[in-house]
Amino acid sequence: MLSDEVTEVLLAAVGAPRRAELLDSSPRSRVWRVRLAGRRLVVVKQITDGGDPGADADTRFAREAAGLRLAGRAAAPAVAPAVLATDPAARVLVLEHVADLGRTDDWLPGYAEALARLHALTAPADAGALPAWSGPTATDAESFLALARALDVPVPDAAPEQLAGLLDRLDPAPYHALLHGDPCPGNDLRTADGVRFVDFERAALGNGLTELAYFRIGFPTCWCALSVTGAPLAEAEDVYRSTWRDRTGKDVPGDLADACAGWLIQGDALVERAQRGTADQLARVPVQDFTWGCVSARERLVHRLGAVAAMTRDHDRLHAVGRLGSALADRLLELRPRPRPLPAWDARPW
Q1: What are the φ and ψ backbone dihedral angles of 186, each rounded to 5 degrees?
Q2: How far is it, in rounded angstroms, from Cα 63 to Cα 141?
Q3: What is the rounded CA–CA span in Å between residue 35 and residue 19?
């Protein structure tokens, strides 16, 4: 059932609801597919606190509304549902209904193209329209080094200095790409015109490589960690870079190895959103292999370590971090139960 406040928003904005179907969503929101008079369909999303009054529901609503409006700049085809109405007091968004075509065998190129088109929609003039992307910190770097010590893996002398340099290079200030914030499988709807993204509660401005890195690093904010390698990986990255170039006239700025290493050292990228910021997640890894979705923390971490090691063997500024990552992966693979490879990208079931 729609609440009275949601019904009032619909009546004022788009018309009388005739039938509402509650859809699956996170504990932090309620989402309905609503049929209006005249048989028109819309989607209604209400941001909630999920039972936690400190859950920043107002902030998440503001970010989603701002992110969707910026995404609405895209020329056809769209990259997100259109915003039909908002009510900040009730934290309600009324959105265009987008029909998802469902599973496709080769979803990566369309996803990569839509992601690049989304990222290219904003520019320096949009500074302040959304928060800047929040990346790893000095605490994350120290936790990563502490993980090596806890596993008796020697830390190369240059690694601490290289991690400090990495943090400086990951400063989002020079970049203004429109980041989705959680561009996971499941937050992408496949339509006849291309991919559209939903769930912009973590939208931010920053470097698009932060999200291009998802392919190599295993979709780090997603319960459904997936591995992309070989020709599919090369094709997806080529599609992203060529699409960005077509839209902006420039090459993608920054270093993809930096973006991947940034995800590697963030322990919070091993757990679901509700657990982030609650503990040093990397410190748990030597003593406990905890699970998120169908993949364990050690499995996620081994994949990321291998990806960064492969990218940084000859990297001027990250070679010591890469060597450390390779040694850490070898050590984790000695633990029991032995970490399994991540599911392949084409095993995605939806």
Answers
A1: 110, -30
A2: 28
A3: 5
Neighbours of 193 (CB within 10 A): 12
Q: Is the dihedral of CA 60, 62, 65, 66 positive or negative?
A: negative
| Number of residues that make up the chain | 350
Cα 12 → chain centroid: 33
The confidence score (pLDDT) of residue 52 equals 56
Look up residue 329 and give its amino acid.
A
- Copy the structure tokens of residue 99: 């029909």
Q: Per the structure block, which two tokens stand in for 140?
A: 């994350």
Q: Is the dihedral of CA 132, 138, 139, 143 positive or negative?
A: positive
Query: Measured between alpha carbons, how far is 118 from 179 in angstroms, rounded to an integer?
Result: 8
Element (H, E) at 35: strand 29-36
Condensed to tens digits (0 to 9), the pLDDT of residues 49-105 reads: 865 555 689 999 999 999 999 999 999 999 999 999 999 999 999 999 998 887 777
Rg of the Cα trace of the chain?
21
For residues 98 and 312, give the distance between their C-alpha atoms in angstroms, rounded to a whole number: 41
